[in-house]
Amino acid sequence: MEQTISPFAEIELQRLAPSPTNPRKTFTDLDDLAASIREQGVMQPILVRLWPDDYPTPEGRDDRPTYEIVAGERRYRAAQLAGLASIPALVRPLNTRQVLEAQIVENLQRRDVTELEEAEGYQLMMRDHGYTADQLAEKVGKSRAYIYGRLKLTALCEAVRERYRAGELDASRALLIARIPVPALQEEAAKAILEGWNGPMSYRNAARHIQDRYTLDLNKAPFDRNNAFLWLAAGDCNTCPKRTGNTPELYPDTPADVCTDPSCYATKKTNHIAQQAELHREAGFKVITGDSAKKIAPHGIYGASIGNDYVALDHKSYYGDKETTARKAIKGHDVPTVMIEDVRAGTLVPAVAKKDLDQALKASGIRVSTSSRNPRELARERARKSEQQFRRALFDAHHVAKAADAHDNNGDVLNEADLSLIARQFWARLHHDAQKVIGRMYFPEAPAESEPDAERFTKNPDYLRADYLRISAVTGMIDDLAKRALVTLLLDIALVGTLDVPTYIEDISTPLPLLAAVHRAGLNADEIRASLDAKPTKPASTPPKAAPAGGATHASKEKKPATRAKQAAPAGGKTAAKPKTQAAAAASKAKAKTSGRAAAGGKGQPTDDPPAYRCPNTLDMLEARA
Questions:
Q1: Residues 252-273: pLDDT tens digits?
Q2: Strand pairing partners for 316?
Q3: Is 73 a catalytic residue?
Q4: 58 contact partners, CB below 8 Å, separation of at least 6
Q5: When you count CB atoms within 10 A of the terminal residue's CB, does the N or C end of the chain come out lower?
Q6: Which architecture characterizes domain 1-113 according to CATH?
């Protein structure tokens, strides 16, 4: 008797069974939904059809179900948890193709469906029911590229799928791994991405890792990519589905000629080497491949030298005084050729034994060199080393002579020329900001511009031009200062580095070198602080109006009266060097090492002479040998 189907019915749960074609495998928040169903019931009917005759009885059941759940399995499971006996349902006479469409279009659009479950649904419709990617795209309202992107997830091996289902992998990184066609390599890549040195890789790092390790440029392949007989199981590379250009939907940002199967690539490379080696052996050449080639050049062949015993014939090097290849250097001489495998590139490189090459070079009148470098460069290097040795010899001899003078003259051996040298060197090593401080001290009013200065600094702000002119003026006046003025300048250079009060430390105590110098000059630090507290502090950028103590400003030798004009403007716009490091403490002559500071704020005049200061990181260059 024909069974009558009601379009709407309250169906007992025991007569229902989940659809075997439903791609959804995970169902979340069932407890919350069950609690809602207990209170309000099932608000929306599920969709069912009669259980098909060609479907087997579900595993774990003794009787065949009456209905297959097409859509609404989550509500069915929650109703079971809620203890209901039946559930409202719409019964439709659907064929299997229509069931799949409903499951794809209705179920897979829900937010709790995973990307892999969606991909498995698309795969089922295309594999078993003849859908094309374009038809699926139209059904679900997505692009063709979207469908192919989802479908690629079905290429994941089972081990990686488990890591995805466990929540270790997201869909974006899983898709990167799915593009690797070899299951063993997929597992290897998943492990590297999830268990990296610093934890799981980001998407960007994972993409870079896979590109570097599991893709290869076919344009650089050592074998003929059109050769379908190199490995019959794979065929030629141009029509291979593992070439990115043949599946552009899966590799939208990748060049077309990229192989995604390193195992296949390696097999073809090995077969190619074997074929080439056999051809060269038949031609009478000695051939070295495999482990024997790795022993000679374990990382591949990069230059003319191949290990210790061979030289590549076609790599350039220096023979005599000319850069050329060994083949051209020994042209006309018969030398046995050896074919050596480049294990990095997968090619055979023609080479000769080094001893055979040396004999051929001598026969050609070419001097055999032990170096592959340019002879002219070697000569320049020898000249530089010779000059370096000469300069060191001069330096050492000067040190000995000055040490002897210091011993004979009780340490008073620095003449004006020596002090000028020291001042110039230390001045050049000051930081630019420190040079500005001293420049403003010695030249409160900026010197007049020379013609080259005016041309060079037309577009610069006035204050930058003024500081440049001051620094140039100090540079130009050093050679003309008298001995006492040079000493004052050296003290200024030595102490200017103590003026900086860093913002990144709490302790801003006045540096001991500055306090000690002030004390030696017969000044009282407390009185100076009190005078500052009694009146407003001038802006730090304002140059001091008074000349520094000791008369250092514009001091000059009596025998050179014309030098005052020179101080006013630097000759030729000469600029001071601006290295990055300060060397103010290098002028200290003290012998005791200390790095202490005065009490916080620098208050308190020492009752005894404070310990002399020497920077622990700077050589005491002015101290003569006792």
A1: 778 899 999 988 999 999 999 9
A2: 325
A3: yes
A4: 17, 18, 20, 65
A5: N
A6: Alpha-Beta Complex (3.90)
